[in-house]
Amino acid sequence: MTETNFIPAARPIIGQEERDAVDAVLAGGMLAQGEEVALFEREFSDLLIDGRHTVAVNSGTAGLHLGLLAAGVGAGDEVIVPSFTFAATANSVALTGATPVFADIEPDSFCLDPRSVQRAITDRTVGIMPVHLYGHPANMTELTRIAAERGLKIFEDAAQAHGARLGGRPVGSFGEFAMFSLYPTKNMTSGEGGMVSTGADEVARMLRLLRNQGMERQYANEIVGFNARMTNIHAAIGRVQLTKVHGWTRTRQQNAAFFDENLTGVVTPPVADGAEHVYHQYTIRVPEDRDGFAEALRTEYAIGSGVYYPIPNHRLPSFGLELDLPETERAAREVLSIPVHPSLSQADLDRIVAAVNTLAGSR
Question: Of 242, 269, 296, which marks where a domain is finished?
Fold first, then answer.
């Protein structure tokens, strides 16, 4: 295989417009958080989350951590999270001093199962943190109903779900706060960073304090805070990407529709009624020898793929728990994400379909 014919699992798109925007910031000399960040926050809010408050930070993990702190989560509290996700979800809860309580997932969406959430609630539970995994909205209808009945808050991990919707409502608008990641392989990027949205004025103010050493005005430190600011350089990249993300999402959805129609022998990802999936990942299930399947895709067909996530969070050494989460364990054994990014050509799509169908048919 050569560098030129290999199809990667993900490919960040950085063009001349992004380069020009960074150069303009460098030429202006104001590199740290400033007007570019403020503009990025406003534009992100207007485009993706119906005008809610937005606060830019230096990573998605920082966004989750500071969001939880701003919402009052701390030692002695419990927050229900999925185990089938990236470790940052549970880590952010633990970093506040609270305890992440792991629940199972629904097999179709790979998102939190409301029935498992119900069973996990205790008198110490203060919130539920669904992850809109792979770009598919979690079952917010049931989760928000449970939260309202039990007096709990919803904290959304929307790291992979820029522009996803449920019942016409954007993800990021359901909870006390929501976090969107801007890591390079996400549906849009700022190079690195995160964006936190909230409908609560006080949460937004606390987020701004927490990201900037506890101050809104220089040297007027009101609380103990962090340095989690986004730079103007990163915001400049993000502002350009915002002008393109809807077009990229349409291409991802078209690519996914092509796979839905043409893949055979594997389990393709269904979409819930009323949900708009933005396909950060197109995740199939390979019930037998998933790892061998992925290796054959790479070595025989020069096609990359990704296993997100092979070890459930509760079994990571950082948590080390033995729990009965059967759908989580099954997904960790079977999932495989194939390329769906907007850089794929029709020839690439045809190659991927042919390779997957051939391998599936040989097993």
Answer: 242
CB distance 143 to 170 below 8 Å: no
Residues 111 and 236 in one domain: yes
Find where tokens 């020839």 sit: 347
Range of the domain at 344: 245-361
For the stretch 328-340, pLDDT in tens is 999 999 999 999 9
Under 8 Å between Cβ of 290 and 334? yes
Q: Indicate whether 144 and 257 sit together in one domain.
A: no
And the tokens for 205? 């103010």
Tokens of 245: 């993300």
Say if CB 282 and CB 255 are below 8 A apart. yes
Q: Which residues contact 294 (CB under 8 A, 6 or more apart)?
A: 286, 305, 307, 336
Q: Is the separation of the CB atoms in 112 and 138 below 8 Å?
A: yes
Q: Which of 189, 224, 242 is the last residue of a domain?
A: 242
d(CA 58, CA 278): 23
Among all chains, which residue has been given the structure tokens 């994400």? 337
User: Could you give the CA distance from residue 87 to residue 84 in angstroms, rounded to a whole number?
Assistant: 9
Tokens of 171: 């993800």
Any bridge partners for residue 56, and if so which? 195
Cα separation of 144 and 221, whole Å?
A: 35
279 by DSSP, 3-state: which? coil
4 domain-assigned: no
Residue 3 counted as domain residue: no
pTM of the model: 0.96
- Summarize pLDDT for 83-114 with one digit per residue, the tens: 999 999 999 999 999 999 999 999 999 999 99
Count of domains in the chain?
2
Regarding whether 325 and 270 lie in a shared domain, the answer is: yes
